[in-house]
From TrEMBL:
Region (Disordered): 102-121
Transmembrane segments: none
PANTHER family xref list: RNA POLYMERASE ECF-TYPE SIGMA FACTO, RNA POLYMERASE SIGMA FACTOR HI_1459-RELATED
Stated name of the protein: ECF RNA polymerase sigma factor SigM
Domain RNA polymerase sigma factor 70 region 4 type: 128-180
Gene that specifies this protein: sigMa
């Protein structure tokens, strides 16, 4: 079984989540593979919902909760669906603890490219404005847009995570995108 838990590579991504979930209840290496596989997605979603400054704490809380809950995970949904729901719950818990939710993407890393101070400033300003626009959305729209655009989930999976009907998910995403476009246009940004 040691081979099955070798670090994933581009050629061999390792065992599927369902196998790792079964093993992770009694094998820390399997849990570590799950964490490495999903930490980036969880962090991106958390950073959008609570801001980059609080995202690390949320990610830690998510994986502590997942580790504790694996023994009770029944597999009625895919692991990634369950993980996204745990992430959203942790985000809402963090937002309740902060009082007033604010999101700032100012601390998000820049893409690797030659340093151009003017462009760096423009990108930071754009991230801040996009964060403000996302924060202005109603919770359900922000959740649906974040799961679609940042986590890359399809409509059906978003429906399973949120418990909303498929048509409702599509409507929330469309309304959220339109509201973001309008907000950014009012801010003088061409979406």
């Amino acid at each position: 079984m040691r081979e099955a838990l070798a670090p994933p590579t581009a050629e061999d991504p390792g065992p599927p989540d369902a196998v790792l979930v079964r093993l992770a209840a009694r094998d820390e290496r399997a849990f570590e593979v799950l964490v490495r596989r999903h930490a980036g997605t969880v962090h991106r979603l958390a950073a959008t919902m609570v801001g980059p400054g609080a995202a690390d704490d949320v990610v830690q809380e998510v994986f502590i909760s997942v580790h504790r809950g694996l023994k009770d995970f029944r597999g009625e949904a895919t692991f990634s669906t369950w993980l996204h729901r745990v992430t959203l719950n942790a985000c809402y818990g963090a937002l309740r603890g902060k009082g007033h939710p604010t999101v700032s993407m100012h601390d998000a890393p820049e893409p690797l490219a030659p340093h151009d101070p003017a462009r760096t400033g423009e990108q930071a300003e754009l991230r801040d404005q996009l964060a403000q626009a996302l924060q202005a959305l109603p919770r359900e729209q922000r959740e649906a847009v974040s799961l679609r655009e940042l986590a890359g989930l399809d409509y059906a999976e978003i429906s399973r995570i949120t418990g909303a009907e498929l048509g409702t998910v599509k409507s929330r995403i469309n309304r959220g995108r339109a509201a973001l476009r309008a907000w950014l246009t009012r801010a003088g940004i061409e979406p």
